[in-house]
């Protein structure tokens, strides 16, 4: 069996889809004795042909697949690949066939990526630096930084801000006009003189708005899992 | 800099207000402005009581001239008093918003000086926030009863949502427990705001719409003797006549000692059941009469949809592959999302029981009320169905019970007594 290893980029994935194979960006993948490993190099033509093929049968499918590919699921490429194969077999949109295993599996990982994006639109926390720029470090499960950038550029159109995924070492930067994504290892940040004060006011607010007579920690943790707490001032 | 103690007092005074939702508005950001509104609403944090924080929910002042029995801020109460200035509130909102702590502001207030004065200062705050600070995030403003209509309209033009709390489910209880508020002082402004919203809708106003996220209201449950049936009738009338977006229920918590008030709280299970019934009215095509008789209470052992289905066993089972959407929505355990999934999927192939399970349709309750390709997977005996629905519901009740701090309240919730 041939195993195509990609660098995790959508372009490499679409290139690999061209051949019938197993695709993964997971370098920890378990290999069987007869497997042949091929490192996929991005091929513009192959990639474009696959994308055109998908768009021909379902113009909305590419966006869905691109969202699925941000998942942290190690089988994401395989799930997306199976979905594309079905699409090619049916030669029409299959996204409404909600009892088909390939559709269920793809929808499940899309659901998780969209769910985390929505959750972090609320749970991301910015700090104000000395020069007035806002900085938000976080460690999401899925690769969603550019999805969050879309949301926050609309909201903070006239601010300067950085969203920094410390796990993947990537950051989205917005300078008040345009948005760029890039590698970012560590960041050193000098906080504005008011930062601590507003953080304390927020902590005070959080404490005061709680109804102590009605404890329900389980519900709190269900809606706001503990792994997100390390960047929340009110939970630190 | 804003005083921490003032924030503490004005937050603690506001915390019993239920509503914190930030949905329903699509306000866009403006040139040079800060923020926008997200139609689906966004939660920014969750407190240890399990509630979400979406908006900065504070009072402008807690120094009240009214003396409502149930209210911790009533005139005769011996509590710390404080007041924010409009600028302090604006500064707090802008700085919290920039750090993504909040989705916007929920501003309410005790009535200080006079209703007009209070409404005026609240209006000044929200107008300042929009015009001077150029803030385009979500604003929910509480209406002050007896305040001048012109001031209210001025505020309604800049905020996303307003709410007048009906406070108690009947005029009699309102007279007894909140003597300075009259039903008219709550319903009339609600009505004129609704007329303004309707006017905008009919004239297809695009920019500067009055209250794009509409109106809501809230009432206290269990401080007065009204039955669930009466409460739901009132709810239905408010949805129908005032076009409210939401009616919130707040189960009574005895924070205030008074001979006119019960000494135990109403329990969260009752509140939960009322919300379930409210959902059935708004999204599932039920009438109140089908769910609950005028003088009855909702059953505590299972949810109102199960109770309705058990009373109407002659309508079941329904065939999953052919039943219309409205019928599917009436099957216990099948919600709006599941019903949609079923109607979409069955266009392409017949669904069997396994398909439903794989599609993540919860069948614990539903299996007694459906057939898949003519096959029935539930129990034939009515008594068994009842027991199994109760068992399915008991997990839910247990979860609710963990919310109660003391056993008497928990017991009263189970038995439905107040």
Overview of the molecule:
The complex is a heterodimer of chains A (236) and B (418). With 236 residues, chain A is an alpha/beta fold. Chain A has three domains: 2-116, no CATH class; 124-192, no CATH class; 194-236, no CATH class. Chain A contains eight helices and eight strands. In chain A, the strands form two sheets. In chain A, strands 4-5-6-7-8 form a five-stranded mixed sheet, covered by helices on one side. A three-stranded parallel sheet of chain A has the order 2-1-3. In chain A, a hairpin with a 5-residue loop joins strand 4 (127-128) and strand 5 (134-138). In chain A, helix 4 (76-90) packs across helix 5. The radius of gyration of chain A is 21 Å and the shape is elongated. The model of chain A has no long low-confidence stretch (mean pLDDT 92). Chain B folds into two domains: 4-266, TIM Barrel (Alpha-Beta Barrel), CATH 3.20.20; 304-401, no CATH class. Chain B has a six-stranded parallel sheet. In chain B, strands 9-10-11 form a three-stranded mixed sheet, with no helix packed on it. In chain B, strands 1-2 form a two-stranded antiparallel sheet. Classes of the chains: A alpha/beta (236), B alpha/beta (418). At the A-B interface, helix 5, strand 4, helix 6, helix 7 and helix 8 of A face helix 1, strand 1, strand 2, helix 2 and helix 12 of B.
């Amino acid at each position: 069996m041939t195993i195509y290893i990609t660098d995790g980029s959508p372009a490499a994935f679409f290139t690999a889809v061209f051949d019938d194979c197993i695709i993964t960006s997971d370098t920890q993948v378990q290999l069987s004795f007869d497997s042949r490993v091929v490192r996929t190099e991005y091929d513009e033509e192959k990639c474009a042909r696959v994308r055109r093929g998908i768009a021909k049968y379902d113009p909305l499918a590419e966006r869905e697949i691109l969202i699925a590919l941000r998942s942290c699921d190690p089988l994401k490429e395989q799930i997306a690949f199976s979905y594309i194969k079905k699409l090619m077999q049916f030669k029409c949109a299959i996204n409404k066939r909600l009892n088909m295993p390939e559709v269920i599996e793809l929808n499940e990982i899309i659901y998780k990526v969209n769910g985390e994006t929505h959750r972090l639109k609320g749970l991301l926390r910015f700090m104000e630096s000395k020069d007035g720029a806002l900085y938000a470090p976080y460690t999401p499960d899925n690769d969603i930084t550019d999805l969050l950038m879309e949301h926050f550029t609309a909201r903070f159109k006239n601010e300067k801000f950085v969203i920094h995924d410390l796990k993947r070492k990537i950051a989205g930067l917005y300078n008040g006009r345009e948005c760029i994504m890039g590698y970012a290892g560590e960041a050193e940040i000098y906080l504005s003189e008011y930062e601590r004060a507003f953080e304390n006011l927020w902590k005070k607010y959080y404490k005061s708005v709680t109804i102590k007579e009605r404890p329900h920690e389980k519900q709190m943790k269900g809606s706001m899992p503990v792994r997100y707490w390390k960047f929340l001032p009110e939970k630190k | 800099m804003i005083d921490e103690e003032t924030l503490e007092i004005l937050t603690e005074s506001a915390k019993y207000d239920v509503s914190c939702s930030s949905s329903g508005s699509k306000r866009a950001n403006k040139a040079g402005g800060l923020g926008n509104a997200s139609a689906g609403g966004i939660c920014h944090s969750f407190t240890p009581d399990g509630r979400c924080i979406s908006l900065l929910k504070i009072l402008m002042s807690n120094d009240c001239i009214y003396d409502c029995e149930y209210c911790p801020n009533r005139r005769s109460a011996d509590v710390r008093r404080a007041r924010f200035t409009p600028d302090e509130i604006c500064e707090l909102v802008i700085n919290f918003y920039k750090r993504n702590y909040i989705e916007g502001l929920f501003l309410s207030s005790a009535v200080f000086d006079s209703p007009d004065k209070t409404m005026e200062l609240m209006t000044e705050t929200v107008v300042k926030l929009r015009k001077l600070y150029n803030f385009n995030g979500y604003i929910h403003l509480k209406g002050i009863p007896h305040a001048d209509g012109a001031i209210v309209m001025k505020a309604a033009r800049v905020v996303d949502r307003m709410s007048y709390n009906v406070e108690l489910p009947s005029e009699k209880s309102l007279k007894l427990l909140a003597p300075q508020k009259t039903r008219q002082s709550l319903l009339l402004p609600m009505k004129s705001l609704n007329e303004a919203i309707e006017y905008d809708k009919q004239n297809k106003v695009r920019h500067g719409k009055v209250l794009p996220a509409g109106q809501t209201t809230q009432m206290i449950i269990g401080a007065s003797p009204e039955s669930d049936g009466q409460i739901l009738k009132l709810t239905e009338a408010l949805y129908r006549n005032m076009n409210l977006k939401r009616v919130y229920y707040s189960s009574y918590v005895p924070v205030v000692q008074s001979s006119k008030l019960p000494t135990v709280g109403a329990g969260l299970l009752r509140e939960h059941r009322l919300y379930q019934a409210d959902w059935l009215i708004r999204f599932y095509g039920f009438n109140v009469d089908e769910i609950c008789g005028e003088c009855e209470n909702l059953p505590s052992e299972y949810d109102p949809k199960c109770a309705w289905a058990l009373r109407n066993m002659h309508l079941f089972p329904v065939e999953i592959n052919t039943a219309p959407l409205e019928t599917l929505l009436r099957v216990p355990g099948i919600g709006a999302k599941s019903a949609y999934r079923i109607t979409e999927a069955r266009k392409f192939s017949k669904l069997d029981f396994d398909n439903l399970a794989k599609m993540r349709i919860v069948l614990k309750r539903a299996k007694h009320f459906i057939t898949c390709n003519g096959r029935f997977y539930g129990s034939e005996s009515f008594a068994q169905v009842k027991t199994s629905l109760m068992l399915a519901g008991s997990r839910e009740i247990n979860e609710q019970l963990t919310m109660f701090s003391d056993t008497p309240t928990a017991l009263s919730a189970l038995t439905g007594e107040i």
